[in-house]
Design goal:
91 residues; ACP-like_sf
């Protein structure tokens, strides 16, 4: 049985954020301040919980510190020794 390849981490993060905000993923830039798109602390907490449940070692504090896709990709990669997070089935 073939499995679908996981999307790149950056794309997966953008898709998860876009889904929460109800906007197209392409409307979110890598270095956009996600709070300016309307991502509030409750939604960031939800993302952190979802990603941790899928074996990604990211905390709410990581997300709030610098709310950009680029910063979050970096935080996830650092936690995983540079290999990138699992994010299996998140969302």
């Amino acid at each position: 049985m073939e499995t679908e390849p996981r999307p790149p981490v950056r794309d997966r993060l953008r898709e998860d954020v876009a889904r929460l905000l109800g906007v197209p993923p392409r409307s979110i830039g890598d270095d956009d301040d996600l709070t300016e798109h309307g991502l509030d602390s409750i939604r960031m907490m939800s993302l952190a919980n979802d990603w941790r449940a899928n074996e990604a070692g990211v905390s709410f504090a990581d997300l709030v510190e610098t709310p950009t896709i680029t910063a979050w990709v970096t935080a996830l990669a650092e936690d995983d020794g540079g290999a990138g997070p699992a994010l299996r089935g998140s969302g």
